[in-house]
Amino acid sequence: MTAVANPATVGECLRVGAGFSQGDRNWIAEQFATLDGRLASFYADTTELEVSVKDREAKGQKVTLECWIAGRQKIVTTSSEEVLHDALNDVRDDLRRRLNDSKNRQEPRHNRHLREHVEPESTDLVE
User: Fold this and answer.
1) Which terminal residue of the chain has fewer beta carbons within 10 Å of its beta carbon, N or C?
2) Where are the alpha helices (DSSP H) in the chain?
3) Spatial contact of 79 and 62, defined as CB atoms under 8 Å apart
């Protein structure tokens, strides 16, 4: 894998949207820090994350995490968990899964080693 000169990190790419204040940003970034390893293969200046919450702390709250990476489709994950901490973990884990799925779908086509399939040698019997 080629190293990215300026890798994306949650701390650099995360912005808080509706329902959160700038004071919440550091707490959320700490919870999302496990995404850094997954984001590291993308450039920081072409990667954006935005987290928002509708009806915070109320029954039926909805947390949304959006991810934009240049050259890829936007990924949106949502959670209706009643506890905010659980909802944030839910959207974080879902984003990680979807980034992994996206990477796995794209890589084999461009990785010759994964595409090559060696056929076993034929052992014809001579009579």
Assistant:
1) C
2) 10-13, 22-31, 36-39, 84-110, 112-115
3) yes
55: left (phi over 0), alpha (psi -120 to 50) or beta: left
Report the C-alpha gap between 41 and 120 in whole angstroms. 36
Counting Cα atoms < 13 Å in the Cβ hemisphere of 66 gives: 12
User: How far apart (Å, rounded) are the C-alpha atoms in residues 40 and 44?
Assistant: 8
Question: Alpha carbon of 50 to those of 13, 89, 107, 126: distances in Å?
Answer: 8, 14, 26, 68
- pLDDT tens track for 90-125: 999 999 999 988 776 655 555 555 555 545 555 555
